[in-house]
UniProtKB/TrEMBL annotation, chains A, B:
It catalyses: L-glutamate 5-semialdehyde + phosphate + NADP(+) = L-glutamyl 5-phosphate + NADPH + H(+). NCBIfam families: PRK00197.1, proA. InterPro entries: Ald_DH/histidinol_DH (IPR016161), Ald_DH_C (IPR016163), Ald_DH_N (IPR016162), Aldehyde_DH_dom (IPR015590), G-glutamylP_reductase_CS (IPR020593), Glu-5-SA_DH (IPR012134), GPR_dom (IPR000965). This is glutamate-5-semialdehyde dehydrogenase. Residues 4-284 form the Aldehyde dehydrogenase domain. Belongs to the gamma-glutamyl phosphate reductase family. Catalyzes the NADPH dependent reduction of L-gamma-glutamyl 5-phosphate into L-glutamate 5-semialdehyde and phosphate. The product spontaneously undergoes cyclization to form 1-pyrroline-5-carboxylate. It comes from Hesseltinella vesiculosa. The lineage of its organism: Eukaryota, Fungi, Fungi incertae sedis, Mucoromycota, Mucoromycotina. The keyword Transferase does not apply. The keyword Oxidoreductase applies. GO terms for biological process: L-proline biosynthetic process. GO terms for molecular function: glutamate-5-semialdehyde dehydrogenase activity; NADP binding. PANTHER family: DELTA-1-PYRROLINE-5-CARBOXYLATE SYNTHASE (PTHR11063:SF8), GLUTAMATE SEMIALDEHYDE DEHYDROGENASE (PTHR11063). Pfam families: Aldedh.
Length: 452, 452
């Protein structure tokens, strides 16, 4: 067995131990991690300084962007304190495992329960920000999963130090706490990742956190289910019955409050009747004032060239590719559609099933749109930027999923558990049931009668 | 766009229409399908006769097994009536879509709902039994999904006829019912399947129904999520505190009541202390009496050779591969383990995460086993053969899933829906919330206050 296979098998064995751990034991581990991180702050900062020093040379050589460099720093301001308080915040969340989601009496002495359980072993691959080591380790432990981490190479020393400190913390737990230190492990090379992506025998789910290209690479190179999303191409549709004030507020927030986020609106769809009013004109002006460049289809381009002749290069003709692009910048694609069905068709063809909004005062039109658009989030008169685990009230965010099996949309701890069926019998055999024999009861079991 | 891509896109467009369909309209479609199937019985039987005639030549040429040939026949006995009543049974099931599984007030004018919705487009690939065309089409429609079918080539004429009849039934629905006939489509060639397995843009889930090799081929050749399982290697563990009578009943039922089923027990794990009592001896004798061959590890082999010298070739030495084999026959692998942890380790290493049972009178040991075994079903004192959608009370079975994301275990209609988040606002924008600004309420919404 290769070293990397042994590591994956250790994670699998750790995940078996984690199945029996109580919520109190998981919280005890998290608080111990917080404590040891605080105690070893100087070691961690020294590792981070080393990474920053090496990265600075890369920046000067033009091999690393300034934005990536900034994300590397965990020493500045209250960043480290924020990381620590994030750990104790996770202890306050509900345990997502051991919840009964179905209970049925099959016979008087045969009871069936569907109970949430940890998924098993997670593989997390991320870039730049070293605090992900702490955050994802704690989310994994709280949900009862073992985790294997792989960070960006610019943060190698910081990541390794953080993982070592977490392992030391787990190793120092009292003997009564069965969480092994192999519940959190780290790997460093691309070769390790290639090998791990093949080990669907030991690894249950991959959680990539990073760029589109990272996510796409992983999706195309493993049979293991991937939790996350590559593109975030969100649309906002201005219906003919839109309220102008809501539109002005929402479109500007959805595009400009954080353009680099996956939940920012990348496409503005406009009902054709709005070209006969001043609604579209005012919304376009608000975007231009906010520094946004509009990439327009023929109809909207002609309209804006006529009504906003002074907008200069803030109004441009769109190419076909602009309707399949995640700009992540002060740029928005604009398209005029005949009606709500035109908007639905465009979104289902060009969107990424992430989050799409309709702005209208007509409840029936809103319901039609929200029912027929195939996306994890369908919003009525609200900004697409609400697609976020914290804003949804999950208290934590593992990622945003565009999957259509299991977790979808912003994913909290619930996305890291699945269920198993537990059947409690008394010697029951299937051949005693059937036509002319015993009949199944199929009665729901009330929570007060659970025998778990 | 190729013909097959057009077909997949038609399915995708049909699935959008299906999102808006009511439960009444879905049931109307199912009953119409039942009616037209009955009306066209002669056509269907003629197609089936043609397939059987061609297949018979294959059987005589030794190119097709008799078992496969028998599955082909939908004319004999009350088979066709059973198919028809299966259709009306599905109308009686609850609509699995449009269920609210979470509802939270984010602000006084901002409400978030998590609602179940159809997955979208299903691709079902199956072998031999033509009735799957009817069954899976009806399950897909009832859950609001479009479906593309591909059956075995021995049943080409029957499958094509059944699909054509279903499409005719859908085409003859009143104009008030928006289900298009492209909601059910069929393809015939292997090349079509290769092309479809690449179209993750249009197809959301593959549901294979057939042999291990079929399922494995599909799992290895698509990025689309696959609902199902390849192997069904189920184990039954006889703990030292087992009740002999329950063991005798359960082990024989689990192994012999239908050996070709995926939920039959393939491995018998025996606590070592049972070799000092006569428990194992009696269980082994019951299996031998039922015609089962025992493939034994060294400890159990020595024991049985000593105590059951007359068993002849019903007791054999096992090879390593026998502990990773789905026999689907009157054969069982036997292994002696030191304790419950030995059983758990063996199952987690060699099982297929399908269904595993412990037989014991000790509740604590049972809980330990059921918690630590990583399988869709963990049973206490019951036969693994209970792993079945009808026995679980789902009223229908799409398949049995060993996936650890989304549906797991026997899958009914619930496995064909996923949720979407619906957010109802009043012009809300994210930049108004945060420290020093508006605070999120994150209050659960009571069902009586739902605004859906």
């Amino acid at each position: 067995m290769s070293a990397i296979e042994q590591l994956a098998r250790d994670a699998r064995l750790a995940s078996v131990s984690l199945q029996s751990v109580t919520n109190e034991q998981k919280n005890e581990a998290l608080l111990r991690i917080k404590q040891v991180l605080a105690e070893r702050k100087n070691d961690i900062f020294a590792a981070n300084e080393l990474d920053k020093q090496l990265a600075e040379e890369q920046v000067q050589a033009g091999k690393l962007s300034n934005a990536l460099f900034k994300r590397l720093d965990i020493c500045k301001g209250d960043k480290f304190e924020t990381i620590l308080s994030g750990v104790s915040d996770i202890t306050k969340l509900d345990d997502p495992s051991k919840k009964v989601t179905m209970a049925t009496k099959l016979d008087n002495d045969l009871s069936l329960y569907r109970v949430t359980v940890p998924v098993g072993v997670l593989l997390t691959i991320f870039e730049a920000r070293p605090e992900v080591v702490v955050n994802i380790s704690c989310l994994a432990l709280k949900s009862g999963n073992a985790v294997i981490l792989k960070g960006g190479k610019e943060a190698t020393h910081t990541n390794a130090k953080l993982a070592a400190v977490i392992q030391d913390a787990l190793a120092s737990l009292p003997a009564s706490n069965p969480i092994p230190k192999t519940a959190v492990q780290i790997v460093e090379t691309r070769e390790d990742i290639s090998a791990l992506l093949d080990l669907d025998r030991y690894i249950d789910m991959v959680v990539p956190r990073g760029s589109n290209s990272l996510v796409k690479y992983i999706q195309n190179n493993t049979r293991i289910p991937v939790l996350g999303h590559a593109d975030g191409i969100c649309s906002t549709f201005l219906d003919k019955e839109v309220d102008l004030n809501k539109a002005l507020r929402i479109v500007v927030d959805a595009k400009t409050s954080y353009p680099a986020a996956c939940n920012s609106t990348e496409q503005l769809l406009v009902h054709q009747e709005l070209l006969q009013k001043d609604t579209f004109s005012k919304v376009a002006q608000a975007l231009i004032d906010a520094g946004v460049t509009l990439k327009c289809d023929a109809a909207s381009h002609a309209y804006l060239q006529h009504h906003h002749a002074g907008a200069g290069d803030k109004v441009q003709a769109a190419g076909d590719e602009d309707y399949d692009t995640e700009f992540l910048d002060h740029v928005i694609a604009v398209k005029v559609v005949a009606d709500v069905d035109g908007a639905v068709t465009h979104i289902n063809d060009h969107g990424s099933k992430h989050t799409d909004a309709i702005l209208t005062e007509n409840a029936q039109t809103a319901d039609w749109f929200m029912t027929r658009v195939d996306a994890a989030g369908c919003y009525w008169n609200a900004s697409t930027r609400f697609a976020d685990g914290f804003r949804y009230g999950f208290g934590a965010e593992v990622g945003v999923s565009t999957n259509k099996t299991h977790a979808r949309g912003p994913v909290g701890l619930d996305g890291l558990v699945i269920y198993k069926y537990r059947l409690y019998g008394n010697g029951n055999i299937t051949s005693e049931y059937g036509p002319g024999k015993k009949e199944y009861l199929h009665q729901p079991i009330a929570p007060s009668d659970y025998q778990l």
